[in-house]
Amino acid sequence: TADIDTFQGLYYYPIDCNALFKGKIYKNDPMKVISVQATKGQTVSVYDYGTVVVSMGGEDYNFQVYKNIDTPDFGGQETIFIPFKDKTSGKTTFADGRYLIIQPGETEVVLDFNMAVNPWENYNGIHSTLTVPPSNVIMGPVQSGERKYEDR
User: Sign of the C-alpha dihedral, residues 129, 69, 147, 84?
Assistant: First the structure.
């Protein structure tokens, strides 16, 4: 309870209306369960949901998208998310990346990086983070969403 008494909230970048991007989503049908490496050496099972194709900062990306099975960072199995890193990772955001929860439509999705969140590992070292696939490394800084907890 001492931690709760001193908790001052989470730390976010200011809202950035330019941090929203429309993309096309390509769902895998059927989805397959895959094993993804995590930061503490174990593997985590997730559904390989598909790919989001989006242009950001003059670069085209094919983000790998997962659907949660039992990753503790999310409230339920229906969570669809993109783990990503960018030029802020390890500086003003968590070194092992952040998660962007998405609500895909049939063929399109809006990626709102203001909603990027840290994995639980940023708050408690007993957790681990999914390793970000190379396709999900953004070449520039994403200065929106949640920042490192220890920098508040």
Answer: positive
